[in-house]
Design brief:
The protein is an alpha/beta fold. It has two domains: 2-118 and 239-261, 3-Layer(aba) Sandwich (Rossmann fold); 127-236, NAD(P)-binding Rossmann-like Domain (Rossmann fold, 3-Layer(aba) Sandwich). It is 30% helix and 20% strand. It is built from eight helices and twelve strands. A six-stranded parallel sheet has the order 3-2-1-4-5-12, with helices on both faces. A six-stranded parallel sheet has the order 6-11-10-7-8-9, covered by helices on one side. The longest helix has 14 residues, at 95-108.
Length: 279
């Protein structure tokens, strides 16, 4: 913790008015930026992507790809770039970036708002097998599993490399970063309909599904399909969230960020007023 406090005292003060950093990588982030730009065109928007998707969706404003170098690197970036506000719309299961962003914003004295769509809740007829992390999935797979549908993301396949007795159907936006023996890869991006998911599961004779608790509607159809086909679902639960201001709808996120940049005096966020001349 001493390195963090030292950093907070040594950061240079270089501010630029009306600049928003969006931590993105999700469809929610794309929608947020589109609507925010239409409501606050005077604000410069920078969307930060981790680089996990080779072909990200089109985004308005500037796009930054790659990591920041942990909490110190992100804090330095916020100050050096003159970020006025950070809104976090990363994947609900991206726990580390959320914790890092919250701490970095505290160090840099930049307001931080966390958007996290509500998690899926099991229906009484669902056959969920909850686990805390991806590494716990192999041991949690039911003994009857033979043909497994994986929707955990192309960079989250390492735990499944040494399971030669299983066959995997892997769905991701981009090709996987590692090779999984005995598998087939489908490249596709949601949303998916219930009819599509039912057809996919039946065509490939899937008997088990592995997924993350992403929440939202875009990929929920596979949960309903599993319910209708009475399939077990090994579901990776979300990591803990930082103790930050939280909203669960895009409308609420937009309202809070827009009111901040419009100077709404009823907004609970404090806006920086000391600006370097010409910045």
């Amino acid at each position: 913790m001493s390195s963090v406090s030292t950093l907070s005292l040594s950061l240079p003060v270089v501010w630029k008015c009306s600049r928003l950093l969006v931590l993105g990588g999700t469809g929610d982030a794309v929608k947020f930026v589109q609507q925010f730009v239409s409501r606050c065109p005077q604000v410069e928007v920078i969307t930060s992507l981790a680089g996990r998707t080779a072909q990200p969706q089109n985004l308005q404003g500037k796009v930054r790809i790659g990591g920041f170098g942990g909490v110190p690197g992100l804090a330095e970036y916020l100050v050096a770039t003159g970020i006025d506000f950070v809104v976090d719309l990363t994947h609900p299961c991206a726990g580390q970036i959320k914790q890092n962003a919250f701490l970095a914003c505290q160090i840099a004295c930049v307001p931080y708002l966390l958007f996290c769509r509500p998690a899926w809740e099991p229906d009484p007829t669902d056959r969920w097998i909850p686990v805390d992390c991806l590494e716990a999935v192999p041991s949690a797979l039911p003994s009857t599993a033979q043909r497994v549908f994986l929707t955990t993301g192309r960079q989250n396949l390492a735990p499944f490399q040494n399971l030669p007795h299983l066959w995997f159907l892997i769905r991701s936006v981009d090709p996987p970063t590692i090779d999984i023996p005995n598998s087939e890869v489908i490249l596709d991006r949601g949303p998916f309909t219930l009819e599509e998911e039912l057809a996919l599961l039946q065509e490939h004779r899937i008997d088990t599904i592995v997924t993350k608790n992403s929440g939202g509607d875009a990929t929920y159809a596979k949960i309903v399909a599993a319910r209708q086909l009475n399939l077990p679902v090994v579901i990776v639960q979300r990591p803990p969230l930082p103790p930050a201001p939280l909203v669960t709808t895009l409308e609420a996120a937009l309202d809070q960020v827009v009111s901040f940049f419009r100077g709404d005096c009823s907004n609970s966020y404090t806006r920086k007023t000391d600006r370097a001349p010409g910045h």
